[in-house]
Write a structure and sequence with these properties.
The protein is mainly beta and 77 residues long. Helices cover 9% and strands 26% of the residues. It has one helix and six strands; from the N terminus they run βββαβββ.
């Protein structure tokens, strides 16, 4: 058990929706794609595959915090 009182908390940004490649299962944000194809499939297999599945962020509105002293993650409910 830690002796930290978690007095210095930092609010973390909300998680956004992501895309997952149906072939290699790489999970990436849409704005991180350099093109319209999976960078992992292109690097490994040399194929420009653009078959992605949307993965929604949690629909429950909870805030996430991280203690700056000990690094523990805390979810509000």
């Amino acid at each position: 058990m830690t002796s930290c009182n978690h007095c210095k908390l930092m609010l973390l940004p909300e998680q956004s929706d992501k895309l997952q490649c149906r072939y290699c299962h790489l999970t990436i944000k849409a704005d991180e794609l350099s093109g319209d194809y999976c960078p992992e499939c292109f690097e490994i297999h040399g194929e420009k595959r653009n078959d992605f599945e949307k993965i929604a962020a949690k629909e429950i509105a909870t805030a996430r915090y991280r203690c700056e002293k000990c690094g523990i993650m805390i979810n509000s409910e």
